[in-house]
């Protein structure tokens, strides 16, 4: 279940009985870590997560004046998830050409930076790879349910789909994850 963290402007205004528009700094300070974490779990890498987080806050900044008080975090999650799904659909339509052979030698190293190392300790690499291999719609539903702890109803609202669609996506996503992570179960049974 997602709990709505109130912004400082909201809690002060709640005492007066009226919601006030929070400052940009309050929004970023209160929500950037959670938005980045969701973006990272959806995209599977730091750079895409940073780009997605930035897009989310640009979208929030543009539409904040039209926001009606409610579950602010739910609104942020909906924006994050929708922008991720839009980007995934766009990427499917874009044809990517390989790098020239000399460009391969100029690519940066593959060692994780401190942020990636921290994130990698929270989900094993094979789990993150299995999540990344899921179709974007399944990945979004599974991440929101199993990692972020959303209820099926909250996921339906966030994704803008019917409850049955959420159940189906989670079921299919989990089934694909079970297949992708079968080696873990086999390793566990060998150790027992």
Protein traits:
mainly alpha; 192 residues
Q: What does the model show?
A:
The protein has 192 residues and is mainly alpha-helical. The chain contains eleven helices and no strands. Helix content is 72%, strand content 0%. Helix 8 crosses helix 10. The longest helix is centred in the middle third of the chain and has 22 residues.
Structure in a nutshell:
The chain has helices at residues 8-16, 24-43, 46-63, 72-93, 101-104, 114-122, 125-133, 136-147, 152-159, 163-180, 182-191. By secondary structure, it is mostly helical.
Strand content: under 5%
> What is the assembly state of the chains in this entry?
single chain
Order of helices and strands: HHHHHHHHHHH
Assign a percent range to the helix content: over 70%
Largest sheet: none
Mean pLDDT: 78
Please specify the SSE layout and strand pairing.
Layout: H1 8-16, H2 24-43, H3 46-63, H4 72-93, H5 101-104, H6 114-122, H7 125-133, H8 136-147, H9 152-159, H10 163-180, H11 182-191
Helix pairs in contact: 2-3, 2-4, 3-4, 4-9, 8-10, 9-10
